[in-house]
Each structure stands twice: as structure tokens, then as C-alpha cells.
């Protein structure tokens, strides 16, 4: 600047204008495509590097608090099923009974879940989720007492069915992200990837913790701790009121999302995908028990969730390309290709080989669920977002229930290794459904 001024003519210049300065009460000029500047008197936010989308995600105020509480509330989701199977099979000596009870509870949740979600959309998360969770915790306590005092078998089904009012904490968290990031599709993609990775993390740590509690302490310990964590987590989650999405008007939530074009076929794929998870859990527990290693069953299951969690986090760093429907077909195809690996590994009678196969098979799980949830959000009106995502989870839980029952029957009537054909078949069925039903549909505006 000094050299430039020295080269100018010596003629008296006009009055030198002052450097452009941001005046109080006026916005500074911005370049096209740049972020809107902050209000006067507040420091400009630090711009994170383009390679750190997760840093940018949690820079939004309030997101860290509801995310931490949501993780605590979701951890029991990975504990309850394993705890119930270990508790019932250990006391009654039947994996078929344990799988049937778990299937009944999940089927009841599949029926009650959409109604709970609709009430949450209409009346708010904090008003509905807390009493619904309290009822579910009482159901878990009733199951524990029935098992402990050797009550008739039918009481186990009734007690576990009472947990059906458990709210979908993952869906409520995704609804908060969708509300906070409604103007940033790229950030919503990262948020959905993180939420799926969080689900996988809970299903990775949950079985390990449940197995440890049920084997190291007493059979009912896993169910008792899971119920306590669920209630405390939901209380902390709903206490974060500033990130809670607004209540949907009643006129926009009068019709079920099941009537929306494109959503029912997608739910069929979630149903088959759930069958993979349900059968894989029961079959793996029984396989480890058959080899005298029941205590490591939770750790083996955790490896499958670990692979899925890692794949989900990496998926959030990759910018999506192509259509959602096309990406979903590719993800389901990858899942169907990897799921026969546990069947092949089980024939080796090596738990180490099986654990490695489950780790590899899990790599396609989270990307499939992330893309599928993105399709659900694109095909659901904003006022019914929580209900639409709960329907997806309902289909998933229904599949898990069917897979648990089928897997329980398989391990009682088939060789332990052969039972792994159940999740492999379910994965092939999910691919077939996707190829036959997934088409382009008009997307709804982002919530």
C-alpha cells in the first residue's frame, strides 16, 4: 500500500475516504454464497474447516446436551433384548421361549410405537415421552419379577409386551436435527450418519454390558439396569427444551404416513432388515453358548455393531452422489453380499473367525439404515416426521421380532452353524424387495 501511494501524482487528491468500516446497526457486505453475518455486538463464529463436518454439526447450540442424553436413553435398546434372552433362557432352559418372549415385546412395540409417535408430534416430546417411558420401565420390572419368582410362562409375554410404550429416542433426536438444520441438507446428511452411528454404538456397548451384568452379577441385573438407564436418559433428554421441535398442527397430522406413496414399500425393506438383526442376535448367543462361551456372546455381537458404527461415521464424511433411491439399492445390495459371511465362518467352529465375519458383515448395515432413513424423511411431510421415522423403526422392530422367533426356533431344531442361514436369507429378501419396489417418488420439502 505504501508503494502504491508513493507512485501517485503529487497533485492534491480529493479528500481520502476512510476505510470501509462496519457501522453499528448495519450489516457488512457479504460475498455471494457466504454465510449471513452475525448480529452487531456479537463475535463472528469460528468457521470450521471443510473437512470437519462433525465439528460444524456440534457447533449448533444445545446439540451436545440432547445428544449426550439421547445416547444414555438409547443404550438400553441394545441391552433389553440380550438381557431378556439371557435371563429367560438361563432360568427356563429354552431359547425358543426366550426368543418368543422377545418377539412378543417387539411386536407390541411395533403396534404401539406409531401411536406414541403421533402423540409426540401433536403434543410435544417432553409431554408424552416421560409418561410413556415410565410405563415401559414398569413393564421391564414386571418381567424381572415374573422370571425371578418363577411365574407361569404366559406372564412373561404379558410383562414384556407392557414395554411397548418405549418412545423412539433415536427418532426424536433425528427430528431435532431436522428442525435445527432445516436449511442445510449437507449438515442433515452428517447428522443422520451420526445418529445411525450412535444407534450402532449403543447396540455395540449394550450387549456387552448386558452380558456382563447377567453373567457376573445375577440373571436379572441386565434388565434392572437397562430400565433405570432408559428412564433417566429420557428424563434428561426431554429436559433439553430449547432444541425440541415445535408441535405439529393437528390438520397436518390427521392422516397416517402409511397412505403416502413410496413409504409402504420402503417399510417392507426395513422389515426384512430387522429380521437380519433379530435372528443374528439370538443365533450368535446360542452359537457361543454351544461352544461353552456364553460370556463372550455380547462381545462377539459388539463387533458387528462396531463395524457398522465405523462405517456410519465414515459415511457421514462423504458427500452423497446420485439419487437417494439409487444409493439405497446399492447399500442393500452390499448388505446382502456381506451377510453370508457369518454362515461361512460358523462352519469353521472358530469364535475368532466368526467375530471377524460379523465385523465385516456390519460394514454395510449403517450406510443402509442411513440412506433408508433419508428416504423416509424425504417422503414424509414435516409435520409427521417423528411418526414417519417411528413407522420405519416399527417395521424394523417387527422384523427383529420375526427374526428373533425364527432364530430361536432354528437354534433349537438345527445345527448351530446352520442357523446362520436365517440372517443371510433375510438379507437376500431385503435386496429382492428393494429391487422390486424402490422407485422415484416426489419428495416433500425439508422440515
TrEMBL record:
Record region (Disordered): 8-53
InterPro entries xref list: MFS, MFS_trans_sf
Biased composition (Low complexity): 30-39
Keywords: Membrane, Transmembrane, Transmembrane helix
Compositionally biased region (Pro residues): 40-51
Compositionally biased region (Basic residues): 19-29
Regions crossing the membrane: 65-89, 95-116, 128-151, 208-231, 265-288, 300-318, 330-347, 353-376, 388-411, 417-437
KW Phosphoprotein (keyword) present: no
Protein name listed in UniProt: MFS transporter
Lineage: Bacteria, Bacillati, Actinomycetota, Actinomycetes, Kitasatosporales
Amino acid at each position: 500500500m505504501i508503494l502504491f501511494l508513493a507512485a501517485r501524482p503529487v497533485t492534491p487528491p480529493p479528500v481520502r475516504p476512510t476505510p470501509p468500516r462496519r457501522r453499528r446497526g448495519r450489516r457488512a457486505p457479504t460475498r455471494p454464497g457466504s454465510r449471513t453475518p452475525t448480529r452487531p455486538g456479537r463475535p463472528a463464529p469460528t468457521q470450521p474447516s471443510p473437512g470437519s463436518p462433525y465439528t460444524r454439526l456440534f457447533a449448533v447450540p444445545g446439540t451436545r446436551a440432547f445428544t449426550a442424553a439421547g445416547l444414555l436413553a438409547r443404550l438400553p435398546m441394545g441391552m433389553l433384548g440380550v438381557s431378556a434372552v439371557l435371563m429367560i433362557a438361563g432360568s427356563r432352559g429354552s431359547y425358543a421361549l426366550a426368543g418368543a418372549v422377545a418377539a412378543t415385546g417387539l411386536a407390541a412395540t411395533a403396534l404401539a410405537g406409531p401411536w406414541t409417535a403421533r402423540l409426540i408430534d401433536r403434543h410435544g416430546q417432553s409431554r408424552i415421552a416421560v409418561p410413556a417411558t415410565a410405563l415401559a420401565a414398569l413393564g421391564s420390572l414386571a418381567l424381572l419379577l415374573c422370571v425371578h419368582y418363577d411365574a407361569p410362562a404366559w406372564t412373561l409375554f404379558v410383562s414384556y409386551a407392557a414395554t411397548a410404550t418405549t418412545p423412539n429416542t433415536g427418532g426424536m433426536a433425528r427430528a431435532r436435527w431436522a428442525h435445527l438444520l432445516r436449511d442445510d441438507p449437507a449438515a442433515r446428511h452428517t447428522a443422520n450418519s451420526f445418529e445411525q452411528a450412535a444407534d450402532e454404538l449403543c447396540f455395540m456397548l449394550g450387549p456387552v454390558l448386558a452380558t456382563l451384568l447377567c453373567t457376573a452379577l445375577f440373571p436379572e441385573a441386565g434388565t434392572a439396569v437397562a430400565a433405570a438407564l432408559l428412564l433417566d436418559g429420557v428424563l434428561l433428554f426431554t429436559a433439553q427444551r430449547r432444541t425440541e421441535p415445535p408441535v405439529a398442527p393437528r390438520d397436518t397430522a390427521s392422516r397416517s404416513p402409511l397412505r403416502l406413496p413410496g413409504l409402504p414399500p420402503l417399510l417392507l425393506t426395513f422389515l426384512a432388515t430387522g429380521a437380519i438383526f433379530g435372528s443374528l442376535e439370538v443365533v450368535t448367543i446360542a452359537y457361543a453358548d454351544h461352544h461353552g462361551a456364553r460370556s463372550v456372546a455380547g462381545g462377539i455381537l459388539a463387533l458387528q455393531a462396531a463395524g457398522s458404527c465405523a462405517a456410519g461415521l465414515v459415511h457421514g464424511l462423504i458427500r452423497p452422489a446420485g439419487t437417494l433411491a439409487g444409493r439405497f439399492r446399492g447399500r442393500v445390495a452390499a448388505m446382502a453380499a456381506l451377510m453370508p459371511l457369518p454362515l461361512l465362518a460358523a462352519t469353521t467352529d472358530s469364535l475368532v473367525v466368526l467375530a471377524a465375519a460379523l465385523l465385516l458383515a456390519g460394514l454395510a448395515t449403517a450406510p443402509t439404515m442411513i440412506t433408508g432413513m433419508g428416504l423416509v424423511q424425504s417422503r414424509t411431510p414435516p409435520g409427521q416426521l417423528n411418526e414417519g421415522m417411528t413407522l420405519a423403526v416399527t417395521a424394523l422392530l417387527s422384523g427383529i421380532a420375526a427374526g428373533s422367533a425364527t432364530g430361536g426356533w432354528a437354534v433349537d431344531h438345527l445345527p448351530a452353524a446352520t442357523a446362520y442361514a436365517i440372517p443371510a436369507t433375510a438379507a437376500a429378501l431385503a435386496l429382492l424387495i428393494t429391487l422390486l419396489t424402490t422407485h422415484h417418488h416426489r419428495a416433500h420439502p425439508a422440515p
